[in-house]
Write a structure and sequence with these properties.
Helix content: 10-25%
Shape: globular
Radius of gyration: 17 Å
Largest sheet: 6 strands, mixed
Distance between the termini: 24 Å
CATH topology: Cathepsin B, Chain A
Strand content: 15-25%
Number of domains: 1
CATH architecture: Alpha-Beta Complex
Structural class: alpha+beta
Number of strands: 6
Length: about 210
């Protein structure tokens, strides 16, 4: 494992696309999965990131066992999205498969668009292992993560530190981890949300990063 820097932010490396807005559809999982793939492709190709289509994942990702929800706008998981993409040609550009904030009929990729980015698989990072997460983030790329976003509604600035470790944590929202750092003595994770750029810190939330719980 390489020595990890004191702070790191993938936004400084031109591999993170502009913040998106999922609207009234419960498609956070599709957005975070899409955003991670956008960045991974940019890192792998050493080129500017392309804007991919979360609607394709909403429409086409199978979820027979109802993992993370019942599918589409009612929820799914990153793993299901990546399993689907690995078995297909890949993911379309947003310009060719527009987002509609609702479930639509799945398009046949071979008939309606050319996949812009393809993938063969993915790796899950060890749970509850801060060093492993930081290492995967710095040396791999932005990571899709699942969080408890119950208290995020009124977040606008600073470091969010209102997570209670004495209560049950309901992991209910998929987002993208892009970096970490420290501000005014508070360590934090830099997390990209999919609630538009006017929310939080230009679409991001800085979550308190605790060494112990």
């Amino acid at each position: 494992m390489k020595d990890l820097p004191a702070s790191f932010d993938w936004r400084d490396h031109n591999v993170v696309t502009a913040v998106k807005n999922q609207g009234m559809c419960g498609s956070c999982w599709a957005f975070a999965a899409t955003e991670a793939l956008e960045s991974a492709a940019a890192i792998a190709s050493n080129s500017d990131p392309v804007i991919l289509a979360p609607q394709q994942l909403v429409d086409c990702t199978p979820n027979p066992d109802k993992c993370g929800g019942t599918g589409g706008c009612e929820g799914a998981t990153f793993e299901l999205a990546y399993d689907y993409l690995a078995g297909m040609d890949g993911q379309a550009l947003e310009s060719e498969y527009r987002y509609h904030q609702k479930d639509m009929q799945c398009k046949d990729s071979s008939a309606t668009f050319k996949a812009a980015v393809s993938m063969t698989g993915y790796t899950n990072v060890d749970s509850n292992n801060q060093t492993a997460v930081m290492d995967a983030l710095v040396n791999g790329g932005p990571l899709g993560i699942v969080v408890d976003a119950g208290g995020w509604g009124m977040y606008w600035s600073g470091v969010f530190d209102s997570c209670s470790y004495s209560e049950n944590i309901d992991l209910d929202h998929g987002v993208l981890l892009v970096g970490y750092g420290e501000e005014n003595g508070k360590k934090f994770w830099i997390v990209r949300n999919s609630w538009g750029g006017s929310w939080g810190r230009e679409g991001y939330i800085y979550l308190a990063r605790d060494d112990t719980a």
